Amino acid sequence: MQTYRDIAREIERRILCGIYPAETLLPSRLELMREFNVARATLDRAIKELVNSRRLSSRRGSGTTVNPLSEHRRDIAVIGWNSGVVPDFHKNLRCRIFKSELLAKRSNWNMLYEYDALLWRFPSRSEMAVIDAVNGRIPQVVVNRVIPGVNCISTDHRGAYRVIVSERMEEIPEALPVFMSSGGDSLPGQYRFEGFSDACRSAGRFYELWNFTPEQDFKSVSDGMIRRLASVSGRKLLVVSDSCQLTGAFVRAVDKAGLKFAEDIWYSDFDNEYPENVWGVRITSFIQDYGALMRAAVDRIDGLLNGSADAGAEHKLIFPLRRNGDT
User: pTM for the whole thing?
Assistant: First the structure.
């Protein structure tokens, strides 16, 4: 059975596609009731929602008229943005912060339908259920997560690692490629390893995988790295980590082992925005391009709302920023 929101979304889609042109009358209530097979009250509620959002104008005795698109301003709920300021990249979009904590109560999920579209920034696992519940009923775009059946804008972790590993293997052909995993089951970590292994496979190179776990403390991780370095003593190493969380321990291990960056070891990580004086060396790193991610997400939402983008789920990759350091 169709709800009034389903009907409102379908009528809006027809307006955006030009089936119901601007400044023309909407089909009569009776026609629409028969088409959607709903009661008058359900249809009236759907039309009232579109009138409230200024998509339609309704005057007693004159029927219901489709408003020009330029008169309509959309409200976008941005969930997970903690900076307090959301750029408004399009004059017809108004972004508002929706606090993630409100979604802890299922009874609050209906509040999302007050918005024309949703933009999720790094949603948590608990928020995945909300995304699934509203999917197909309201346009939404997810930033830096990959969810089947949902429009996603995410960082190209795999491409970034493929680039840096390929470059360094060409520059230092004698170096042994090493991938350090911080453990866990995150998709970004998986993509980063796939980019590393892609590069090694293309170059026909063997590599080593050094696994660590989130439960290990700093000293045990660093001590484990020291043992690993001793096991490949005398070889130049091309090391990449799937996270900057391992970087501090690795810098300590390299120092304890009496090795030097850019002579014995070349190192890269991801999301490392620390200044040089934190570790004593500048790390070659890839960093999330948050501005590009958000701009692409807002562009996608604008396209979905105006019918210029494919309403089917798409996954767009944004290449991260790169910082070349001493390592």
Answer: 0.72
